[in-house]
Amino acid sequence: MRSSPAARNGETPPRTPGNHHHFQSTVSAHRLRRLNSLVLLLRLFSFCFSLASAVFMSTNSRRSSWLDFHPFRFVFAANAIVAAYSLVEMAFSVFEILRGTTPLPEPLQVWFDFAHDQVLAYLVLVAEGAGAAEARGLRGGDTCTAGSSFCVQADVAVALGFVGFFFLGCAALVSGFRVVSFMISGSRFNL
């Protein structure tokens, strides 16, 4: 392929609509890939623990049903929502790793991730707090007897939800970093 005379003489070739590539060093590209892989891993852990919490809570019905207690319904719903959101975000992360671009326009993607991470992290934290308080309150009654695994399974579901919150909170920190980087430099990753 022949180069244009301007490019051969050391001048900058004219820009055409399809000829705009952003320069990115290999070190920067490697860091971006590592950050995207970290985000994918955080989202995977958040998905696994939130799904496990929802499953533990939904299968918890020996003598009493978890449906009889509103905080346990809240724990189930919040963890199911976070698991679904984490699954969608994992797909977005895989898309970003494979294609090198975000599925949505970059400003929208940055704010979408940050806002949803924040809202859902607070949602699951409040749900787990309510579930922990309800589980503790049941200890004095006849619901939690030595032969019943209802309270133990509720405690496990709440604990799994708190671990899911931890990973979602870490993902929220990374998405907050991306928002700040985007506001400062116009790119979601500025290293």
TrEMBL record:
TM segment ranges: 38-56, 76-98, 158-180
Topology class, membrane: Multi-pass membrane protein
Residues in Casparian strip membrane protein domain copies: 34-167
Keywords: Cell membrane, Membrane, Transmembrane, Transmembrane helix
Keyword Ribonucleoprotein applies: no
InterPro entries xref list: CASP_dom
Region (Disordered): 1-23
Keyword Zinc: no
Subcellular location(s) per record: Cell membrane
GO cellular component: plasma membrane
Family, similarity comment: Belongs to the Casparian strip membrane proteins (CASP) family.
Self-association state and partner proteins as the record states: Homodimer and heterodimers.
Protein name as catalogued: CASP-like protein
